[in-house]
Design brief:
single chain, alpha+beta, two-stranded antiparallel ribbon, about 25% helix, elongated
Length: about 80
């Protein structure tokens, strides 16, 4: 695949490449330099599984009813 650099230093990635990387408007792309001087192009995405365990609740277990009651209580108090 080939792309042309514009006078503004921009390129348009070929549709086949965008589709292959599942890119959409606003996505970030990483250009990683390899030891041999070439570059690896990667879509900057994060697998949701890396978030597992990043938030740990240390309090006592609560029921859904307790959560609903706390939400209702705090919602009324904020008005």
């Amino acid at each position: 695949m080939e792309a042309t650099l514009t006078t503004k230093g921009q390129i348009t990635l070929p549709k086949a490449l965008r589709d292959s990387l599942h890119l959409k408007t606003g996505d970030k792309i990483i250009f990683e330099e390899l030891d041999n001087g070439s570059y690896l192009l990667k879509a900057r995405t994060t697998d949701v599984s890396v978030l597992k365990g990043c938030i740990a609740y240390k309090g006592k277990p609560v029921t859904l009813e307790d959560m609903d009651a706390a939400i209702t209580k705090n919602a009324r108090g904020s008005r």
